[in-house]
Amino acid sequence: MVEFIMRDRAGSRHLLSYDPTRHCLYHEGSPLVLPGREAGVVPNKPVPTGRFGRLAVRMVLGKNCNFKCTYCCQHLAGKRHEPDPNDLEGLVDRILRVAGESGPGNIQFWGGEPFLYFETLKKLHKLFLERNTAPQAPGFFVPTNGLLLHGERLDWVLENGIAVMVSWDGPGQHLRGKDVLAEGRTLDAVRRIYARQPDKISIAPILSRHSMSHRAVVDMVREKLGTEDFSLGEGRLISVVDEQSAAAAIPREDLAGFSRRMHADLVGGELPQFSMAHEVASSWIYTLNRESLAPRPCMCHVGRDDTLIVDLEGNVLTCSTFECGDVDESGEAHKLCHISQMNSMADRPSPQLRRLTRRQEDRCANCAMLHACRGGCPYAPEAYADYNCAASYAWSLPMVGLALHMITGDILEEVRTV
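RE: above sequence
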């Protein structure tokens, strides 16, 4: 059992008890009752499938990239293999078959750097629109480092309403490479997208030892865009996978201070742009008293029944980081099947997630953050498990604190395991 020590506006302290295994919150021995709600039950807010209530498709175009980010985890993949896009028509038809009558809701194009595959991007986009027979067309999404976001690529984005997420780390951008928002063409592109379709652009930072504040990134973006009405995507901490990423990550002794600042900014209303934090807090609330460990879902897209990850050769993968021939430390293959073997998502073999399952049963079982972080990345190397666990806890705690503040109006001061 876990104790959350809360402080109200008058300065008085009180205690909430929390069972992380059952994801249940108690006050004075009874399930917490929200105003106007049945005792012990928080309404089960439907969580949409994909971004549009239908299947999300993550298409892995290849691993070529024009940046060499210090902390990039894609080198965990084995020998680089550039998929041969020789039958894009057949691939799109198979994906649409798997998506069923409602069709895919969201088509995401991942790399490497997706805009290095611009001709393939355009072909796929056109094919999905031409061959889709569902009542609604899918939305399209491209994450990018922003360096190529100009000229015909920018025109294509604007003409077709493509959602774009620009990876930019604020004070820590040098760990990625060139400061694209100091580069006139990219900054102009972001401003033009924002002016034309403000709901289709976000800035996605990764927090590091050189950038330990979401608020600092928000302040820098606000200055560049001249508005506060923008979206901050991702906002995660570096996942340590080797000595290079370990050197770039927030030092372990600084994680607690980072967590306190993030919590204060969230409950103080200083980060309305940080949409992921608010989504995690809302999900924590709406599954409260209703969710058990099984089936041990990941925090990310891995293993989700509403997400299909596939490369250009039709290999269905566990995660877009890996290649079709890669094998996890536990012996789990990252290729699940071929798209030709599937008629629906029910035909996709589930990832085994052996290491994550063990972690959730052992290390995570009594952790107060279990239902916010879900045990972290299922494929991060075990050699760095202690740091990644501490970092995930520090990142998750402010969002659990925000959830408790949304429920009670009070401030989380301390967490105790009893």
